[in-house]
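Duplicate of #3305? Posting structure anyway:
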């Protein structure tokens, strides 16, 4: 699964730590989600979408074979 978290953070000008605090997880969790090592729960995905002011499908996209 691909994601645009890094891009969305740059648009909002927030760090991994700031995003983590806003959604109630650790900075390491944001890092693992950004690097596609961890797929977030629906709740976390929705919280991120709320912070960025966009829909979940604008952040996460299934790749061929997912």
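Output from current build:
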């Amino acid at each position: 699964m691909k994601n645009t978290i890094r891009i969305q953070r740059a648009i909002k000008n927030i760090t991994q730590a700031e995003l983590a605090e806003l959604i109630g997880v650790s900075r390491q969790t944001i890092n693992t989600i950004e690097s596609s090592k961890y797929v977030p729960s629906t709740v976390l995905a929705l919280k991120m979408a709320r912070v960025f002011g966009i829909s979940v499908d604008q952040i996460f996209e299934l790749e061929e074979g997912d």
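Confirmed duplicate; merging threads. The chain has one domain: 2-61. The two ends are 7 Å apart (CA to CA).
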